[in-house]
Design brief:
There is one protein chain. The protein has 501 residues and is of the alpha/beta class. It has 16 helices and 22 strands. A seven-stranded mixed sheet has the order 16-17-15-14-20-21-22. The protein has a five-stranded mixed sheet with strand order 3-2-1-5-13, sandwiched between helices. It has a two-stranded antiparallel ribbon with strand order 4-7. α12 packs across α13.
């Protein structure tokens, strides 16, 4: 009798495999991959390295958990969403590095598309503004700039997809019959899918000159019929159904069991991503948010969400560590920031790749405002944490405005939620409770839930709700006047970050 679901969580900086039983994670393995930065604004990953790391963490997690292939009921995927790979279906080799969601090289393409209709030209179809963030323009860039790829695509030899498609294709056979698929959540981030029909939209493909044949088939997020099984010569060494697939932020929404309209979560990782469940009807945003598919479980109707995406939060801590050297490890930032009562009057706007929601300004760049001789590295550390909370507040406020829902609390997850200084400041700035669940690795958990529901490992979403338990809750302590003064300072800093490029 299978005891576990294997969840592969392929993120921006690392890949993990976690084995879950009915209630908890039981074994995990994680490996980082390189961040390739060929020039300013370009961010790439080696897709072959990601596939290699995926195989390694699967084998390591199985070994740590003492698990045999017969112990695994199904495999689920959660993945960094807008990162694009184009590869040769015959050889399985990518035509070049994957272009990462943070990459801004497609700005000229975006500007050209926006020339007739502005950044909201396609919002009614796709739910998305025109921005370098999304996948479709990245595919166009590869077709236009990498020698031989457009010709290969027209011959039917080139396949394109986000990281979920790349991993599922390799897991299920690669050049020898691998399934070329994606789910509705990942497809909704490409700027190529019609939100209403959940199919590739011909006008969008034509606008970006992308051959439909190179794109994967769109499926539900949880479906035992869609993708086939792992190969006996692969990392599981057995045929196991691959039947759960969600973009990482939608996976976290599912992992947080946000199944009711009005439920929301914020994931604190490389960036921050807040999603609000809006039910079976997509809600168009007038406040700088995107409309996206939250999940689709089997034959049930798709559930939609409003989302606010923040490009740089955890990555800002890495920048302090790797570029400035003011901390030796990411965990040290809380200790350093705790040495001062506030940021000493400085604001740090980490617009390294422009500003994402709710501003969508590709011309913005990072700034530190308010520096004096009094400023020290502890103030910088504090300002970095506060920047995460301020950016989250901006998205939270936009979400309430668009949806008409006043959130009673915010569920949080991701690597940064162990930082209690940040979580308290987040509650203070929002003026609402912040709730951390017992299982904080909700991205991997959501991928597991999608796969487990497909094969009956969990019978219903009610079973999943039983698993969700509070670990800790923070409540606001800051008075309203102090909060408003900090907002005003942050707004000034945001304004000064714009128009640099």
């Amino acid at each position: 009798m299978p005891r576990y679901i294997a969840s592969i969580d392929q993120g921006t900086t690392s890949t993990r495999c976690i084995l879950f039983d009915l209630t908890s994670p039981v074994a995990a393995a994680q490996k980082e991959h390189r961040q390739i930065l060929p020039q300013a604004g370009w961010v790439e990953h080696d897709a072959m390295e990601i596939w290699q790391r995926t195989q390694e963490v699967i084998r390591e997690a199985m070994e740590k958990g003492g698990a045999k292939a017969s112990d695994i009921a199904a495999v689920g995927i959660a993945n960094q969403r807008e990162t694009v790979v184009v590869w040769d279906r015959r050889t399985g080799r990518p035509y070049g590095n994957a272009i990462v969601w943070q990459d801004t090289r497609t700005k000229p393409i975006i500007d050209e598309l926006a020339r007739d209709g502005g950044i909201d030209r396609f919002r009614a179809i796709t739910g998305l503004p025109l921005a370098t963030y999304f996948s479709g323009p990245k595919i166009q860039w590869i077709l236009d700039n990498v020698a031989g790829v457009r010709e290969a695509a027209e011959r039917g030899d080139a396949l394109a997809g986000t990281i979920d498609s790349w991993l599922i294709w390799n897991l299920t056979g690669g050049p020898d019959g691998g399934s070329h698929v994606t789910d509705v959540t990942n497809a909704s981030r490409t700027m190529l899918m019609n939100l209403a029909t959940l199919e590739w939209h011909e006008a969008m493909l034509a606008a970006m000159r992308i051959p439909r044949a190179m794109l994967p088939r769109i499926t539900a997020s949880s479906d035992a019929r869609s993708w086939g099984t792992t190969r006996k010569d692969g990392p599981f060494a057995a045929e196991i159904p691959v039947c759960g697939n969600l973009g990482d932020q939608q996976a976290a929404l599912v992992g947080q069991t946000c199944f009711d309209v009005g439920d929301s979560k914020n994931t604190y990782g490389t960036g921050c991503f807040m999603l609000l469940n809006t039910g079976t009807v997509p809600v168009q945003s007038s406040s700088g948010l995107v409309t996206t598919v939250a999940y689709k479980l089997g034959d049930a109707a798709a559930i939609y969400a409003l989302e606010g995406s923040i490009a740089v939060t955890g990555a800002l801590v890495q920048w302090l560590r790797d570029n400035l050297g003011i901390i030796g490890s990411s965990a040290e930032i809380e200790t350093l920031a705790s040495q001062v009562p506030d940021s000493g009057g400085i604001c740090l706007v980490p617009a390294f790749s422009g500003l994402f929601a709710p501003y969508w300004r590709s011309d913005a760049r990072g700034i530190i405002a308010g520096l004096t001789r009094y400023t020290n590295k502890a103030h910088l550390a504090r300002a970095a944490l506060e920047a995460t909370a301020f950016q989250t507040h901006d998205v939270f406020a936009a979400m309430e405005k668009d949806s008409g829902i006043v959130a009673k609390s915010l569920n949080v997850d991701g690597g940064m939620v162990v930082n209690e200084l940040l979580m308290q400041f987040q509650s203070d700035i929002l003026g609402t409770p912040v709730v951390r669940p017992r299982i904080t690795e909700t991205t991997a958990l959501g991928g597991a839930y999608a796969a487990g529901l497909a094969v009956g490992f969990w019978k219903s979403i009610d079973d999943l709700r039983v698993n969700w338990q509070i670990d800790k809750q923070w409540t606001p302590r800051m008075d309203a006047s102090r909060r408003e003064a900090l907002f005003a300072q942050w707004a000034k800093a945001i304004e000064r970050s714009m128009g640099w490029v």
